[in-house]
Write a structure and sequence with these properties.
The structure is a homodimer of 351-residue chains. With 351 residues, chain A is an alpha/beta fold. The first copy, chain A, has 12 helices and 12 strands. The structure holds a DNA duplex (16 and 16 nucleotides).
Chain lengths: 351, 351
DNA sequence: CTGAAAGCGCTTACAG
DNA sequence: CTGAAAGCGCTTACAG
């Protein structure tokens, strides 16, 4: 690889002039610029950005720590990060923790991998990344995972209780509210909910959204329509079966993720009920499975790409000396209903 | 951030000694090492690896170019790359091209994005990555996409016709052979095949594998059992319907991807046929959808993690001066059958 | 408009 | 065992 010195020699100028030709042509005459550029192209010279970084003390690199890139939410968040990073001419150093392989399903207990995270951030810092984006595999509290760093870090698909940390997530409350509203708009009144693990803050938020929608439309909340699940298909099946065999059978079920909705499908075929004719069903997440079911599942799509975008926007903004914008400390992006085939309006007569 | 100079001053030694303490303690006395390390820890000093890289001319960075990280195969390949990279103390600079957003479904025409690739490799080279791994979104010929580089590049989930390029893919022929063998082992003889686009080399290989398995077991290849698909669900449905309504209905269908297998499910329910009782079905890819179908689909799992691992192994090996191992130019990794619920042995009486 | 020179934060022969 | 010094490949005030 050629260096700036060699280019200078070949072009019969100083290294300073070569540098100006590349970075600030206004400082030299058009003539010499052309002369320099000719040899730059001839030798296909590419400046060593490592050397440049050392000098200017900027790397244009951001570190991305993913808890587990094989989890469904992560690739699209990275996609969004990359999109925005590219716009601002930043590049990404990726550190994928492989949480599942490392500690199995025990991801709630963040203390189990603070060590790895400490090492990872340390490496990232020594590589002089200008900021870090942390991408959780599941939305939960990760306070204390990353020590206070001299560079900004923004948390995505998870949150912390530290003053000053930026987090970017989606709005669980609003999403559940809108999903329920949608069902109500389709004339459903007997709307059951299959929740995830009750310990989850997300789950709590969604329940509230569900209840608010009911309340607003003056439909009484029926506790029997609230079934506690655990995010797994089996739980959806069990809950679905109970719901569908109860005396006061709901006309619609809102499963708090697409996987549990799959379990409801199972229960429905077992009981000989047709979706959406006999039961409307709505999921959450818009995972690949949601459009693999038959009929295709109507569901709430997570704004994953936007989360990545926004997180990067926030990070890069906080990197610039005069911050252009003031972002909220905790962004909650809007989910979008994707209408497919699993919901049908109830005819007035069926009410 | 503290520098080695400050540490040296605080510890009352030269910068050389600090460097030795950190990198080659054998060169200094245990006593001074301890003295240095004490202040290193006190100030939480982290060497600037940018500066180190400039000096030692090694970055321990490998560039990973993904055509599209949102495609199902890519995250797990990255996972495998990261695993192996971490072992060898390498780090990853990720460049995600976002091919779909960029050029839509036109990915076959690689000329449409050689420009982006040229820029991307250029950036990667100027960042002094020591090698590049290219991850295709679809397995196809990408000859000419990347110009000859002074650093090694290994291609994954795609291939080139250039002498000397390393490629890592999976063995389509063997996978199809084994899937068909499996069906035959379950006493099936009327085994239909739904192919992908016939232009695809992968598809050709799989057809050969299918035919070899039949031949070996002396079951005559019936051209009516070969339906040309296009990887999409609709095609699986059409092919499935034709097959299942034909006079000589097959007892088993091998769909060359999980998505088309979904279409076969559709056809089966429409015709009132039960899987696996009335029809055994096997897919390919082991995507999320495959275990979302009901019953869960038996399928061939792609060795994605291994592909990432192997590619990285090869790359890093070719980076070391004395190459320890001699890897084949074109690796073809083995797929693994994952048995689920969509295949049933045929009873002897049904033959 | 152009060049000589200092310096970014490290490592590593070399001398003592 | 330890330190002074050169140098990796750039950029950028500064002088001319």
């Amino acid at each position: 690889m050629a260096t700036i010195k060699e280019i200078a020699k070949l072009a019969n100028v100083s290294t300073a002039t070569v540098s100006y030709a590349l970075n600030d042509p206004s400082k030299i005459s058009e003539e010499t610029r052309a002369k320099v550029m000719r040899v730059v192209e001839q030798v296909n010279y590419r400046p060593n950005s490592i050397a440049k970084s050392l000098k200017v003390k900027r790397t244009n690199a951001i570190g991305v720590i993913t808890e587990d890139i094989t989890v469904f939410n992560t690739p699209e968040i990275i996609n969004g990060i990359g999109e925005c990073a590219e716009e601002h001419n930043y590049h990404i150093i990726l550190e994928n923790i492989r949480l599942y392989k490392r500690i199995g399903n025990n991801y709630q207990d963040t203390s189990k991998f603070t060590g790895v995270i400490k090492d990872t951030t340390s490496v990232l810092m020594s590589k002089q990344v200008e900021g870090i984006i942390y991408v959780g595999a599941h939305c939960r509290d990760v306070t204390g995972l990353i020590d206070k760093t001299p560079i900004p870090v923004v948390y995505t698909y998870c949150y912390t209780q530290n003053e000053g940390d930026y987090t970017v997530n989606y709005d669980d409350f609003l999403a559940a509210y809108e999903a329920t509203k949608y069902l109500i708009g389709m004339n459903h009144r007997k709307i059951a909910l299959i929740t995830g693990l009750m310990g989850s803050g997300q789950c709590q938020e969604r329940i509230k959204g569900y209840q608010k929608a009911l309340y607003e439309s003056q439909v009484l909340f029926n506790p029997e329509y609230l079934k506690v699940g655990n995010w797994e298909r089996e739980a959806g099946y069990e809950a679905g079966k109970e719901l569908l065999t109860s005396v006061n059978r709901p006309t619609a079920i809102f499963a708090l993720n697409d996987v549990m909705a799959g379990g409801v499908f199972d229960a429905a075929v077992e009981l000989g009920l047709k979706i959406p004719e006999d039961l409307s069903l709505i999921g959450f997440d818009n995972r690949e499975c949601s459009y693999s079911y038959s009929p295709k599942l109507t569901t709430m799509a997570l704004p994953l790409n936007n989360i990545g975008n926004m997180a990067t926007e926030i990070l890069i903004n906080s990197l610039s000396k005069q911050k252009q914008k003031n972002f909220p400390q905790h962004s909650k992006l809007k989910c979008a209903l994707v209408e497919r085939e699993s919901v049908m309006p109830l005819l007035k007569g069926e009410l």
